Amino acid sequence: MTPLRQLPRLLRIAAVLVRYRLDDLVEGAHLFRPLLFLRPLLPRPRTDIAAQSRGARLRLALIELGPIFVKFGQILSTRRDLLPADIADELSALQDRVPPFPGDVAQRAVEAALGAPIANLYTNFDTTPMASASIAQVHAARLPGSEEVAVKVLRPGIHERIRADIDLLRALGDLAQRWHPAADKIRPRDIVAEIESTLQNELDLQREAANASLLRRNFAAGDDMYVPKVYWSHTNENVLTLERVHGIPVDDLAALDAAGIDRIALAEKGVRLFYTQVFRDNFFHADAHPGNIWVDSTRKENPRIIALDFGIVGSLPDLDQYWLAENFMALFDRDYRRIAELHIAAGWIPATARVDELEAAVRTVCEPYFTRPLSEISLGEVVAKLFSVARRYQLTLQPQLILLQKTLLNIEGVGRLLHPRIDIWAVARPVLADILRKRYGVRHALKQIRKRMPEWIAVAPELPELIHATLKKAAAGELDSVARAADLAQSERLAREQRRHLITLIFAATALMIAALLYVFDTRGIRFAHQSVAAISAAALGALAFIAAWRKSR
Question: What is the biggest distance separating any 2 CA atoms in the chain, rounded to whole angstroms?
């Protein structure tokens, strides 16, 4: 859909903002400022709207504008350190108190989705919703086996509303891609695609059930976080049935204090759980606003978090996960040169950037923060500032990191709500260091080598033919990497690197072939975990050679 066709939608957004008298917001946005001239043409606000506080008017406007705007308000509600208290209080109602749709409509939707009368599916189904959010609402019910459950049902027409908002975002993304001077670095179309993918995933309740199931399995061995059980017999794309849980919303401070919950321990546990999900499991709950986080009221000294709503989860490619973890550790250590080197090594910034200049820019941004007590420093804010500085050095924005950054801000907001003086840095650093030690240590590397050895042995017989074909291409001057060299000096350098690369590949192939032969014929050698030690050693050498060859070829 072209940007011009989205003009009515833009005008409607502006009209809603002005109608709810959000004048400061409109005047602060260059896109909508000219539309203030339309104010005399708009109907005067109803008496009930004019009597509302600014926070209430903002909340009502976001609800009227649709699900994407409600999501934005939910994110804002977690940042009480950035928002006035009256606005944060009102926006927190967007987490689970959006106006509901009729219960009989929800009941008919469940029957249509599961293909049976409601009386056959549940012995009791409460038509009054327990909670109502921007995309779905939740009803209490009871299964024939007497288990208490919560039934989540999508809002009527939600697919069409989301599609309309996505069309608007896509049109704005096309405009930015065409006219923004740094479009190749910002990648607006990729950002819109990431948002679209996230929202489409959230509309598939069976996918949400699978997310809940995996998160429950990841934390089954501990008692720090509880994830409700999924009832798959009563779940599909449009209906989700989960075990009903009971707890205190994490932002109900009065109830937490009345229950004797240790809020400091709870805040620190929430931060540790976030880093564990991201860097241990590479699977994190990415919609962690207070409406989706409850607290087990029976656990006072060692509080347990109850997670809800698994429609938005995140994960990162392995390399991005590694680079991000190393960046966090360098930030904790104030190693600015390491941060600069990591941004270049990760490919986020062109290799032509000068490390010393980037280091100086990072130091300029970070040092003022470290003059404050660590408990007053927002890690999410520092990370956002670093990305802002890096853009001056042609940072290529990574859309997959946007969800993580949003979640980091959510977690910090919840942590500071529970414990305003929490030292995020002191809590996060040991958790991350321990995960890095386990995930990227020697023991883990050996485990991965052992895991992949059969695969390497299986492909080893094909390597001589591949190497022979590569050598023939090199001799004929057909390799693209040499042909694309800009000048003779560059060609010579690439040729030398290629020869070293081929020698390494030959060594790797030889080692893997030896490993294969030893694996097949060694029946009396020393054994380890049912495998020949000689074969393991040869395979390890081959693997290391392949890693070296791969790193040279990058």
Answer: 93
Rounded CA-CA distance 201/195 in Å is 10
Residue 140, pLDDT score: 96
SS3 for 506-525 is HHHHHHHHHHHHHHHHCCCC
Q: Is residue 232 part of a domain?
A: no
The pLDDT score that the predictor gives to residue 248 is 94
| Mean of pLDDT values over 377-388 | 72
Is residue 523 predicted with pLDDT exceeding 50?
no
pTM above 0.70, yes or no: no
Residues 6+ apart with CB under 8 A from 428: 271, 272, 275, 328, 332, 379
Please check whether residues 423 and 318 belong to one and the same domain.
yes
Same domain, 387 and 428: yes
For residue 423, what is the enclosing H or E element? Answer: none
d(CA 401, CA 187): 13
Question: Rounded to an integer, what distance in angstroms lies between the CA atom of residue 119 and that of residue 141?
Answer: 11
> Which of 200, 228, 258 is at the close of a domain?
200
Q: How far is CA 105 from the centre of its chain?
A: 33
Number of structural domains the chain divides into: 4
Confidence of residue 6 (pLDDT cuts 50, 70, 90): low
pLDDT (tens digit per residue) in 219-229: 998 889 999 99
140 has which bridge partners?
Answer: 150
> CB of 244 within 8 A of CB of 149?
yes
- The residues annotated as belonging to the active site are 287
